[in-house]
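Hey Z.,

So I finally got round to the S-adenosyl-L-homocysteine thing we talked about over coffee. Here's the setup:
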Amino acid sequence: MEKRNKCPLVKKCGGCNLCGETYEEYLKKKEDELNSLLGEYTSDLYDPHIRVLGMKDPYHYRHKVTAAFSYKKGEIISGIYEKNSHRVLKSDSCFIENETADKIIVTIRSLLKSFKIKVYDEDTGYGLLRYVMVRVGKATGQVMVILVVSDPVFPSKNNFVKELVKRHPEITTVILNVNSRTDSMVLGERNIKLYGPGKIEDSLCNVRYNISPQAFFQVNPEMTEKIYRTAIDFAKLKKTDKVIDAYCGIGTIALTASSHVEEVTGVELNHDAIEDAIENSYKNRIKNVRFIAGDAGDFMQEAAAQGVKADVVFMDPPRTGSTIEFINAIFAMEPSRVVYVSCNPETLKRDLKQLTKKYKVKRIMGFDQFPWTEHLETCLLLERL
Ligand code: SAH
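And the result:
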């Protein structure tokens, strides 16, 4: 693959700070990093060299794009925040963002002047439009546009939406999100539907999901599917298996695994994500799953104390990794397989030190889920000693 020129904004933006080399060179560095971090666990593996699976086309993979707005020399600009600041860097296209999303944002910017819409100024609190978020469903092609505003009164909103949809017929829903917060959260709580159903759908591994404006949904669906398929494959699921999906988010791993096993229990701290998980189980008529809102460590400890058994535990903790309480509860519950999906190899290594007291690493695979960035995802199978 050819060498990609560095993005001219790379120093200031920091979004894809590893661009500028060929994808092969870049992947090789990630592979070296993973092998040096986890090398101590590879001696008994069938293939002791850990691979990092890359994307066929490692560009424009982000299916959720957020743009901030500001003025520069009297002109409205849109783009991303400069690293560690709230200064907007003008950027009309980005080689890791979905191209349809970027084009819609440029169109919105070009409409603002004629509709006399002012962009919001964080310092003075004056102006209306704060951000635009666009979400594209990879499998469905549905497109959600969220106009984040400081005040629900949006002048000529019907004509604005009419013009926007005329120029981009691919848009399936437009939402006005009211955000009067002073922190750096992009979305406020209130959503007003301006066009379409107010949410979009997408599918991952043949399970369909509703994505509402606030819903957490993976931004790179193509790689996410590869990770989930690998996790399911590693777990060697059987129809009689009882499975736990810990740190389950909106239930994606649980719902994907459900057709292979007897039952799945998903546990997740975030209540909204659990509501989405339950809704998604109804939407797909999946009956052998249940979802519980709570701390994964507490849940595991209580379940272990009550003598609950699981054959497989999937764990997909946040960047901070898991906890000693969670791992001790795994030891008490004694599942025969643990599949660990990690988004931070450093905390994975820390957790493996504990887990390998009673489990053995059988398979490891790395994934380049966010090409050109520092992120590195890993999927591992551990089996009880
Ligand atoms: N498995 C999901 C989400 C993984 S991200 C997916 O593939 O999409 C990690 C998740 O862990 C987040 O949804 C976060 O809300 C949740 N989380 C963080 N701390 C937690 C805790 N102590 N107990 C349960 N869930 C937690």
